[in-house]
Task: inverse folding
């Protein structure tokens, strides 16, 4: 702050420089925002994975997940076997007027039935309309983006690591078998690798 | 013939009075926004929000005309007109091109202009008092104090140019203007422009309005069309002060091809000064009321007196 | 100035011109503003009526083609003195609505003094100029003419006035400084 008025000059310079640059304004309704992957917009439900274990509803701090279900008995798979019972989902609703987007339900879901969707335009004019049922949650499921690629130095995903371990073991076993029975070239077992994780 | 001539000139002044302030207002919207990394109004009128102020005007016109219960009704309602009309009158006397392209040649032009400008502030003081609101009253008092402090340097700086030109008429001053008056009257230009901005209560001299401390000063209780008139007065004031500074200190229509393009030079100089006014609002913080007073009395008045002495010495010794 | 005043013996006060009628009307407005300024019970209204009266006088000057004086009148009185007055009122006491203490006990004395002053002025002016007539087609009060007469014929009163103002200025400074020391 040497010369008197240098602060004033600096103010003028900064504002002028900013004026010549592009503004940072997001032109939202005209241009959709580019949201980062992992944006927490709404929660989508992949029904097929849901087993009605109720973990999400119980862990929810706001008690905003409503689940109804009934039990169905399936006939025994093999004759003489026991009948199986299965939970069938009747209702899955999330009240987004209560939800605080903590994401605990998604964390705790053991079967990967809940996902974050970056969808955010779901304002309603009535607070009761903010309770969204399973069909809406399913619709949002299709807006869930692919998980972003991992960092270069990141650890391998567990599923792949497990699959690779199994494949390595199998390969080692096969190699050992081939060595011990070098004469006999017959080994009918197929060496197809086990599929790893599910989606 | 003469009647049509006068009518035509007055109509032109009226049109300028109604469009130029809006132009400045829209420029302020946009320039201020971009200086802050925003884009400003984008929708009204379609193309980059060019009709935003028209839309604002329509909105203001639709609003209810509210007068506070405790207010002094008539003074309250009269104040916006008192604030606005002087600027319209002043615009009549400002020359925009050589050979008498001016609303009306006034013999004591500079006196006319400054006298009428001073009346405009009266409207704000009236509004501040009549609102029956303590913030309005505070704002009105600050307005009055500011006017009293800055009227003097404004007059002295203008007097310096009048001395140099040997006339009080604005077209006459421009006739005798030479390019080297620019450095000669530089201090005067600074004093005049600064004092003019202070009279308009534009930042950094907007302590009388100071939305963060006294709501909106004298305009606190105003709404609707009356508020719009006050706003129009403010922007008309920017046009008038910029045009006056351009005429008195920057040579008005002087420039290459002044005979054909004089009006363009005048408009360009005025526009540049208007931009400066907007720029200062964006870049600088507000002065406190006491700092404003000190700046006027201890800085601008001595500078203006020095300029007058300089003008006198140069005029007597070298001319 | 004397050369510009023609003897208007052949002119009468009947069949007045437009300017004369305007002059009379503006004069009435001025008088009305002045009377209201004195009689109004509302302090700020009184100040605003004063604006009307002073502005009316400026218009009268204009009608007499004394342009320079007219604008100085507006600049000094309307622009500065009244604003100063309003500022003072706001600083001290400016209620909305009538203030009971705006009425003075010596109003009759004031009226007598005012009437006496007016009578004196009117007599003196009428006696001095009688039927003198100013030709309004030629500007009589342009800056140049006023300046010439002021600095050729009336320099001494002018300088005396500025001395008076200087004395007032110094006095104001002295008064305000003494107060500070006492504190």
Result:
């Amino acid at each position: 702050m040497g010369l008197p008025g240098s602060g004033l000059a600096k103010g003028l310079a900064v504002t002028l420089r900013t004026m010549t640059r592009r503004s940072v304004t997001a032109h939202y309704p005209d241009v959709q925002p580019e949201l980062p992957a992992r944006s927490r917009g709404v929660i989508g439900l992949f029904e097929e994975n849901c087993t009605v274990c109720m973990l999400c509803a119980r862990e929810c701090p706001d008690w905003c997940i409503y689940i109804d279900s009934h039990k169905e008995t399936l006939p025994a798979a093999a004759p003489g076997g026991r009948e199986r019972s299965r939970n069938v989902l009747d209702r899955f609703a999330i009240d987004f007027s209560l939800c605080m987007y903590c994401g605990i339900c998604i964390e705790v879901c053991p079967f990967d039935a809940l996902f974050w969707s970056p969808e955010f335009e779901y304002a309603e004019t009535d607070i009761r309309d903010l309770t969204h049922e399973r069909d809406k949650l399913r619709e949002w499921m299709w807006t869930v983006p692919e998980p972003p690629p991992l960092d270069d130095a990141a650890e391998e995903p567990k599923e792949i690591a497990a699959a690779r371990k199994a494949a390595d073991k199998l390969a080692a076993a096969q190699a050992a078998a081939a060595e011990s029975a070098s004469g006999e070239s017959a080994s009918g077992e197929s060496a197809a690798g086990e599929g790893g994780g599910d989606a | 013939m003469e009647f049509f001539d006068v009518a035509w000139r007055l109509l032109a002044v009226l049109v300028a009075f109604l469009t130029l302030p809006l132009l400045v207002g829209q420029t302020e919207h946009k320039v201020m926004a971009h200086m802050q990394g925003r884009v400003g109004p984008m929708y009204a009128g379609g193309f980059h929000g060019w009709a935003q102020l028209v839309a604002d005007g329509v909105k203001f016109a639709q609003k209810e005309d509210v007068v506070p219960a405790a207010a002094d009704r008539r003074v309250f309602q009269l104040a916006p007109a008192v604030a606005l009309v002087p600027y319209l009158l002043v615009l009549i006397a400002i020359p925009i091109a050589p050979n008498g392209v001016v609303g009306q040649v006034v013999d004591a032009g500079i006196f006319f202009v400054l006298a009428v400008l001073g009346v405009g502030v009266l409207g704000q003081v009236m509004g501040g008092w009549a609102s029956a609101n303590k913030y309005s009253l505070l704002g009105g008092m600050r307005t009055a104090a500011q006017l009293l402090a800055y009227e003097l340097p404004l007059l002295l700086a203008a007097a310096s140019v009048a001395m140099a030109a040997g006339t009080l008429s604005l077209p006459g001053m421009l006739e005798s203007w030479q390019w080297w008056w620019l450095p000669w009257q530089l201090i005067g230009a600074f004093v005049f422009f600064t004092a003019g901005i202070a009279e308009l209560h534009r930042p950094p001299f907007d302590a009388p309005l100071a939305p963060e401390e006294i709501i909106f000063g004298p305009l606190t209780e105003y709404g609707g069309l009356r508020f719009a008139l006050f706003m129009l007065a403010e922007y008309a004031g920017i046009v008038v002060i910029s045009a006056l500074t351009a005429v008195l200190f920057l040579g008005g229509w002087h420039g290459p091809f002044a005979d054909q393009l004089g009006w363009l030079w005048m408009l360009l100089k005025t526009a540049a000064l208007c931009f400066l006014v907007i720029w200062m609002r964006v870049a600088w913080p507000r002065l406190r009321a006491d700092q404003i007073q000190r700046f006027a009395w201890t800085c601008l008045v001595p500078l203006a007196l020095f300029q007058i002495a300089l003008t006198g010495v140069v005029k007597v010794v070298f001319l | 100035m004397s050369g510009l005043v023609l003897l208007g013996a052949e002119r009468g006060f009947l069949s007045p011109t437009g300017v004369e009628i305007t002059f009379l009307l503006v004069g009435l407005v001025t008088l009305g503003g002045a009377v209201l300024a004195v009689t109004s019970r509302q302090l700020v209204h009184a100040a605003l009526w004063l604006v009307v009266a002073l502005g009316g006088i400026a218009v009268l000057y204009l009608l007499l083609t004394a342009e320079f004086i007219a604008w100085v009148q507006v600049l000094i009185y309307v622009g500065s003195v009244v604003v100063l007055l309003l500022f003072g009122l706001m600083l001290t006491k400016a209620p909305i609505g009538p203030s009971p203490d705006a009425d003075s006990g010596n109003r009759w004395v004031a009226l007598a003094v005012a009437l006496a002053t007016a009578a004196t002025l009117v007599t003196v002016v009428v006696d001095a100029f009688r039927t003198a007539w100013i030709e309004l087609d030629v500007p009589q009060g342009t800056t140049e003419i006023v300046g010439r007469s002021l600095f050729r014929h009336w320099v001494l009163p002018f300088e005396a006035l500025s001395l008076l103002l200087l004395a007032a200025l110094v006095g104001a400074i002295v008064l305000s400084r003494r107060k500070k020391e006492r504190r």
